[in-house]
Here is the input.
Amino acid sequence: KALEESNGDVKQALDFLREKGLAMAAKRSDRKASEGVVELYSHGNGRVGVMVEVNSETDFVGRSEAFRTLAHELALQIAASSPLYIREEDVPNDVMEHEKKIAETRAREEGKPENILPRIVEGSMKKFLDEVVLMRQPYIRDESINVQQLVNQTVASLGENIVVRRFARWALGESTDEE
Here is the structure.
């Protein structure tokens, strides 16, 4: 069907399929996902540990190889890139405001013109969110896509909503806020 839609153009057919996958992922995003897996990953002979809960709609999908592979890849991503939040909307407003002030102050100290400060701050905020938000991070195995696109591809192939519910990352020698 994709080849028919694109008059035999393979590249256009692939784009069509990717777009359909994203459309399917968006349609499925409101469906309840409470099955799944808690993936545990240890890296560097136990120097870094990750626990991530990934949910699907059914236990059938939650037990599938493709789903478990996604959960493992997410754990690897978290171990390698140390995100702080899952989604952009999870970042507290006070953290966003603090980062904006830092970006604005830095730009002013560098002597940037007042009229371009908003664009500089916007660029700094985008970079900050790309670093600390898991779903916005470039996927460690293929930086041409981000983690959200990786999840969307799996949603499209499995036909179910997939939710990254929560994660924790520990590294030896890191202190907690309470210490």
